[in-house]
Amino acid sequence: MERRTIDLDQGWDFMQKGITKLKRILEGSLEQFNSEEYMMLYTTIYNMCTQKPPHDYSQQLYDKYREAFEDYINSIVLPSLREKHDEFMLRELVKRWSNHKLMVRWLSRFFHYLDRYFIARRSLPALNEVGLTCFRDLVYQEVNEKAKDAVIVLIDKEREGEQIDRASLKNVLDIFVEIGMGAMDRYEEDFEAHMLQDTGAYYSRKASNWILEDSCPDYMLKAEECLKKERDRVSHYLHSSSEPNLVEKVQHELLVVYANQLLEKEHSGCHVLLQDDKVEDLSRMYRLYYKIPKGLEPVATVFKKHITAEGTIFVQQAEDAASSQAANGGVQEQVLIRKIIELHDKYMAYVNDCFQNHTLFHKAMKEAFEIFCNKTVAGSSSAELLATFCDNILKKGGNEKLSDETIEEMLERVMHQNLHCSKIAGIYQ
Predict the structure, then answer these.
(1) 310 close to 340: Cβ distance less than 8 angstroms
(2) pLDDT one-digit tens code per residue, 270-295
(3) N or C: fewer beta carbons within 10 Å in the chain?
(4) How far is C-alpha 170 from the geometric centre of its chain's CA atoms?
C-alpha cells in the first residue's frame, strides 16, 4: 500500500507543535515527550525526506531546523538577556546556554534522518553545529563583551576579599570555551586577553603601594600569597590553559618590575637578610625568583657582594694587625684563615639550604672568595696563607695540640674551601 504524501505546510505544522512543546519544557513546564510523540515527530521528518521529488523536502526542513532556533532566540532568549545586568545577566546566560544545548539535542533527534543522509551527501554542516552556530552568531556575539566585563569585575572583587559565586563563573567561562567548537580562540581573544590586561593593571596598582609600605619579607609573603590565589582561581573557574600566562603576568608586576627596589631595600633587603641570618625569607626569595627567567641573577649578585665585603673586612683587619706588628709571627694569618674557613662554611650552608645548591650561587661564592683570597696580607695572599696553614697543620697540628680527627676535619674544610680560591691549585701542584 502506497504511503500518503505529506506536503510541506501540513508536515511542518505538525513539527511546530512538537517544537512549541519543547520550548515550553525549556521555559519550565513540567510536560514531557512520551515515546509515541517522539516516534511520530521522528517519522514525520523521515517520511518528508524520503518522498519522491518534488515532495522530498530535505533542503526545506534543513532550513526550517535553523529557523526554529533563530525564532526562539529572537523571541525569547535575547529579550530575557537584554533586561538583565551584571551577575544576573551572567546567570541568565548560563541558563540560556544550557537550555540551548538541550534544544539542540532534542531537535537533532527529531531531524536525525537529515544528519544521516541529506547532510552527508551534500557535505553541509551537521545539525549539532548548525544549532550551536545559531547561538554563537545571535546570542554570544551580542553579549560576550558584557559577559567578559562582568566576569572581570567579579574576579577583582574576589581579589579584594569578597565572596563570589565561583561555580557560576566557571559555567560562564565554559561558554567561551564551548562556543569555539573545538578551538580555544574565542576564550583566548574574547576573554583571556582582557582578563590578563586587567590582572596586570590590578597588580601594578597593588605593587606600587606595597613596595613603598612593606619590608622585603612582608612584600615577598604578599607576592607568594597572590601567586597561590591566582593558581587557585585557575583550578576553580578559569581554563587550565590560562595558568602559565596568568602566573607570568603576576610575577612580572610583583617581582620583575620591582626586583631591584625589593632586593636593595635599606633595612630589609637581601643584604640585611643575609646579615641577620633570615633563612626562611631567603628561601622564599629563592622560590619566588627561581621561577622567573634570569630572576636569580640579581639575588646571586647581592650574595656575591655580601660575601666579598665580609671577607675583605677580615683580610683588612689581618693586614692592619700585621703592619702594626700587633700580632706575633704567623698568629694573625692563622686567625684570618680560621675566619675564612668559618665564612666559607656559613655561606655554603646558605647555598645548600636557602638556594637549593643552585649553580649560580656556587659561582657567586667562588668569585667572591677569589676576590678577597687574592688580596695580600703581609706580602702573601690569603690563598698562599691557606697553603701554609695546611702545611703547618700537617707538620705539627698548628699552634695547638690537635687530635687526628680534628686535623682531618680542618684539612677537609680547607680543601673544600680551596675550590673557591683561584691560586690554590697552582700551590698544591
Answers:
(1) no
(2) 999 999 989 999 999 999 999 999 99
(3) N
(4) 17
Burial class for 38, CB neighbours closer than 10 Å (0-12, 13-18, 19+): middle
User: What crossing angle do the helices spanning 86-110 and 127-135 adopt, rounded to 10°?
Assistant: 160
β-bridge mates for residue 377, sequence order: 380
Sign of the C-alpha dihedral computed for residues 48, 53, 55 and 58 taken in this order: positive
Neighbours of 371 (CB within 10 A): 17
How many Cα atoms are found within 13 Å in the side-chain-facing hemisphere of 49?
20
Give the integer Cα–Cα distance in Å for 148 and 418: 61
Helix (H, G, I), strand (E, B) or coil at 381: strand
Of the pLDDT bands very low, low, confident and very high (cuts 50, 70, 90), residue 416 is: low
Region 239-246 average pLDDT: 96
Would you state the cell numbers that stand for residue 313, as one nine-digit string?
Answer: 673586612
What is the per-residue burial (b if ≥16 Cβ within 10 Å, else e) of 172-197? bbbbbbbbbeeeeebbbebbbeebbe
Single-letter amino acid code for the residue at 405: E
| SS3 category, 229 | helix
* CA pair distance 305, 311, nearest whole angstrom: 10
Q: What are the b/e assignments for 92-124, b being 16+ CB within 10 Å?
A: bbbebbebbeebbebbbebbebbbeebbeeeee
- Give the integer Cα–Cα distance in Å for 255 and 252: 6
Name the pTM for this structure.
0.82
Residues sharing a CB contact under 8 Å with residue 162, sequence separation 6 or more, in sequence order: none
Residue 233's nearest CA partner among 218, 223, 225, 243 is 243
Spatial CA neighbour of 282 closest among 354, 188, 372, 380: 354
Measured CA to CA, the distance from residue 418 to residue 370 in angstroms comes to 10
φ/ψ of 381, rounded to 5, equals -80, 160
Q: Examine residue 54 and say whether the peptide bond preceding it is cis (omega within 30 degrees of 0).
A: yes
* Residue 376 bridge partners (DSSP): 381
Element spanning 380, H or E: strand 380-381
Cell of 334: 692563622
